[in-house]
Amino acid sequence: MLQAKPNSLLSERVALVTGASQGIGAAIADALSQAGAAVLVNYYRSKDAANAIVERIEACGGRALAVQADVRDGAAVRAMVARAVDEWGGIDVVVNNALHDYRFDPTTNPRFEDMEWPQFQAQIDGTVAGAVHTVQAALPSMRERGGGSVVNILTNLISNPVVQYHAYTTAKSALIGMSRNLAAELGPDGVRVNMLAGGLIMTTQASEPTTPEVQELVRSITPLRRLGTPADIAAAVVALASDLTCFVTGQFIAVDGGLTMP
User: Fold this and answer.
1) What is the predicted pLDDT for the residue at 81?
2) b/e per residue, 221-259, with b = 16+ CB within 10 A?
3) What is the pTM of this model?
4) pLDDT tens, 158-177?
5) Which of 11, 140, 176, 216 is the most buried (most CB within 10 A)?
């Protein structure tokens, strides 16, 4: 439930959330707006859903703008960031959340020996190339504004591969190396880079195929005895985007109720 008015935790900040038209991305956009940020709601195909997010944010007194861009296309991402600079003067927060055409279906998930390299490449392009393009496009503005925060959305399957989603987990794992290198390089510029690793998040379009049996298994072995929600991830993003974590960078944080403890 959105608050009646935004608070001031991220006032005067501008945030870009990729893949923000639904699911986790939409919850992140809502939460950043509630914290006071102006939010660039990126979408690929879901124009109507993205516009609905913007309308909801504006109805609660926030600022938002929906912009279409395929994050795999560097030129499109640069144009998207330019819209934010023109509209609000810059970018302070980047959340790399976009997920390229993936559904978490343990019953039809292919085994490793049945996979072809293009299946891996598609996830690497959507996840790693998308993050590279987005951070590169936003970095000049962040430096000009004296710093910023990058939050890369990963998965706890990296630490606990209970279901072998090979291509997805491989691409997300690559973001660990990228994030830590960026944290080291960009720290002197005041730009923090952190990672959030979600567990099984119910219910999103991607997680809908997860069987009740798998859901119950994960719930039963999670110390907090429940599954995650998009709001759980969104709250953690707000914390990492804000000055509450101003001395935190390069960190891999699991948001999964204690299921993994890296």
Assistant:
1) 97
2) ebeeeebbbbebbbbbbbbbbbeebeeebbbbbbbbbeb
3) 0.93
4) 998 888 899 999 999 999 99
5) 176
Q: Which stretches of 100-183 are assigned E, i.e. beta strand?
A: 148-155
Contact predicate 150/193, CB 8 Å? yes
Say which range, 32-46, 96-110, 200-214, 230-244, has the weakest mean pLDDT. 200-214
Do 153 and 233 form a contact (C-beta atoms < 8 A)? yes
Count of beta carbons in the 10 Å neighbourhood of residue 204: 21
Q: Compute the distance between CA of residue 203 and CA of residue 38 in angstroms, rounded to an integer.
A: 26
Cα separation, 62 vs 56, in Å, equals 9
Kindly list the distances between the CA atom of residue 238 and the CA atoms of 8, 17, 86, in Å, as whole numbers in the listed order.
12, 12, 24
Residues 189-242 have pLDDT tens digits of 999 999 999 988 887 666 677 778 888 988 999 999 999 999 999 999 999 999
List, by residue number, the catalytic residues. Answer: 168
* Residue 48 pLDDT greater than 60, yes or no: yes
Please classify residue 220 by burial: count the beta carbons closer than 10 Å to its beta carbon, then call 0-12 exposed, 13-18 middle and 19+ buried.
exposed
CB 260 within 8 A of CB 162: no
- Residue type at 112 in one-letter notation: F
pLDDT number for residue 4:
42
* Token duo for residue 33: 């707006």
Map out the domains of the chain with their CATH numbers. 14-255 (3.40.50.720)
